[in-house]
Amino acid sequence: MNNARQAGEHEDNGAIVPKFKVLLLTNNDSDNVGDQIIEASVIALIKAAMRNLGRDDESFVIDSRAAGIINKKYLQRNDPKHLSAARKAISNADLLIFGGAPLFNYAYQVFYRKTITTLEIAQEFGVPVIFSSIGVEKYDAQNEKSQRLKQALQLPVVRQITTRDDFDSVRKYTEETGIPTAHVADPAVYADIVFGPIADPQESSAATNLGAPVDAGDPAGEAPKRTSASALSRAASTSRRQIEQIARRTAHRALPRLAVQARRREEEAARAATQQATSAGDSAAPKKTSGRRIGLVVTRAGIFKDNKINFSEKDQQDFWLDVIAKLKARGDDYRLFTTGHFADEVFLDNIVRKRDVPISKTMFTVNSPEELIGELTACDGVIAYRLHASITSFAYSVPCVGLSWNFKVPYFYDSVGYGHRAIPSEDWNADHVIAQLDRAMDEGVSKKPSEMMDVYRTLFEGIKGVVAPQSATRPYTYEQLEKNLPRYEGTSHEQYQGKVRRKLRRGYESYKKKDVALAQTRKELAQARKDLAAAGNDTN
What we know:
Distance between the termini: 91 Å
Keywords: Coiled coil
Organism: Brachybacterium endophyticum
CATH topology of the largest domain: Rossmann fold
InterPro entries: Polysacch_pyruvyl_Trfase
Mean pLDDT: 84
Number of domains: 2
Strand content: 5-15%
CATH architecture of the largest domain: 3-Layer(aba) Sandwich
Protein name: Polysaccharide pyruvyl transferase domain-containing protein
């Protein structure tokens, strides 16, 4: 069998047939690691749905690309030649799935234009389209952008739309079309299954290599060895040094996961010991009321202005400093970090430089799902601006409260039965937020499979309608899905390097834009001075 046949075909009852091609569009090129967690979760759900339909993994291929498959040059110049790559990818697909991205956003983003153009190309080639658990901005009957999007959604190739937030707007976008719609959970609620509670210590991929052997694991039947505090400290120190090297040199290799692995192994051992003590009758031990680690997930300075919230960079700095002071006063520890967006890291760098936050209490750069999950699962509780810090914390049963800078934050918390954990901007003060966090830590996290399963059931039905429309197969139960969800294979050197490169280039681009804007402002000020001087001379 030649390479082309191996790549694009498979054997079915002795016959060589083309593989079914799924084109998945997510924000997988985003440096916000939450979007990378979404991508991995959606891929796992698609694979589970295909298995559910009796398709083995060799019978289909998932081509996962950025939702921005419609590139910036086309949006800027409207020249069809810049659509060639998108047209090729879409025309080669049997099914196009938009997964978990804010694809209807038009207020201060251009997602809606990319979505419209993608739908038009899919219609041209007759490729069915499913929108699964996407983000949706509010429908506006008076807004031209919103109405252009509504018109594109009337195209016959659109088979299904499900959203993780504004379902009322989805219904308005699709009224009188008959398109199946639903309000579902975010795919990342399955992150704990997809990524697992602990990395396999026998893994020795490029992404885990520290230049020294990684523990190959414990012999079968033996209890895991407890990692010493000094070993953890050395591993964490190595991680920090490598992060700084990556930032300076555009990353020649991936940040190791050894520290995360060691920490998780120690947590698992502690959890097992706790469970053993409980089963022996020691269940009356009081909950920790101090000495806890609280994760503080910051965000970029401009996000509040974009969402019409009067909350400056200094306001956010003051808020976090007040939270930190109150946590320290009662004996709790804290950790400041981001979900990876370079502009969030700019804010974090500023609060360290200008407000004397100890660098040892921060994780400056987060570039992979493993790193974000490692930070979140090391915490006893989390206070987060970024939505996917909240969602991933929920997936791993880490109590979290979300600071609501956008409607999607309360939508998520409502969807999982914890609406009170979404805190509106008028209540962003340390006393109230910490009180809500304490309540969340007292309550814990209770997951309801019935609420989580909608995202899978709807995706399964959408895929079945294209792959096997006559099939009577029913979707997996939660227990079956848990068993059949493929696990994430880990971030490789090459993938990590690509993530860091994209982040750095975005940082350079942002710096250049600000530099150009500053130069223009200086030019305008100089001209204004000349005009004022000339006016003064005329008066004289």
